[in-house]
Amino acid sequence: MNMVDDESERRELGQCTECGAIFAVEVTNEGEAVPIGTDGTCSCGNPVFDVIESEDVDTGADPSGSATTDPSGRRG
């Protein structure tokens, strides 16, 4: 069982370097991003993930802070 040690590991978002899938990951002291809730690999079989920096995450808002989804639910 892999327990998270608050002092040695942190949780972040990680992106598979092969297919681009996004997972919650634990980042070890060694800098390895390990997906949470899997056998350590992506569903495509790749074990390598890059940590996503918060400024790289698409929140659906434009830089002014306005939502880019119109009231009908379509992105614009």
Descriptive key words:
single chain; 76 residues; mainly beta; 0% helix; globular
Kindly describe this structure.
The structure is a single chain. Strands 3-2-1-4 form a four-stranded antiparallel β-sheet, with no helix packed on it. The N and C termini lie far apart (44 Å). It is mainly β and 76 residues long. It has strands at 10-16, 22-27, 33-35, 49-51. It has a domain at 10-53.
**DSSP summary, beta strand count:** 4
Q: Give helix % range.
A: under 10%
Order of helices and strands: EEEE
Average of the residue pLDDT scores: 77
* Spans where pLDDT lies below 50 across 5 or more residues: 1-5
Q: How far from one another are the termini?
A: 44 Å
Overall spatial form: globular
Instruction: Assess the beta-strand content as a share of residues.
Output: 25-35%
Radius of gyration from the CA trace?
A: 16 Å
Tell me the number of helical segments per DSSP (H or I, 4 or more residues long). 0
Across the major sheet, the strand order is 3-2-1-4
Layout of SSEs?
Elements: E1 10-16, E2 22-27, E3 33-35, E4 49-51
In short:
The protein has 76 residues and is mainly β. The protein contains no helices and four strands. The chain has a domain at 10-53.
